[in-house]
Amino acid sequence: MRFIQIFFPVLLIAIPHFLYKKRYKFMIRFYRSMVYSPAIRKGYITALSVTTLLFSYTFFKTDGASLWLLPSLLYSLLLLCYSFTDATLSWLHDDLVLLGLTLALLMFCLILPELYTLCVSLGMTMLAAMFYPSRRIRRMAKVPEPFSRFHGTEAEIMDNYY
What we know:
Layout: H1 2-19, H2 25-36, H3 38-63, H4 70-79, H5 82-94, H6 96-111, H7 116-130, H8 135-142, H9 154-161
Helix pairs in contact: 1-3, 1-7, 2-9, 3-4, 3-7, 4-7, 5-6, 5-7, 6-7
């Protein structure tokens, strides 16, 4: 269980370093799927929710019940609501000020070691927002084909995704 508690924060550093804005074939397929498929976005959000719940659960099992786990648990349960999480990830992706405020909140929470689980949950949300499609590219993909200048090529997706 302690391995999971150490492994998650390492993922927060490693994943963006190796995958953010990379033109690997599997990443292009991932970007395209996230743009065109609401079901894929819903699965992505569900994976984020389950991951944050799993992280809170591991702390509960190793450290026992504590009131300090409550903020992280409530936040993880709130992430299960698709409409809330979709809006949150979109806002974090599109608004750098909101992303900066979230980072400031994360740094503030790090002052109290008891809020470590909340910090990791916020960090995972920020990481998920990095790979979430922008509202602009989702709007471009919704326009009917004859009226659209967006064709979903690799270059167009990479230019408009972030």
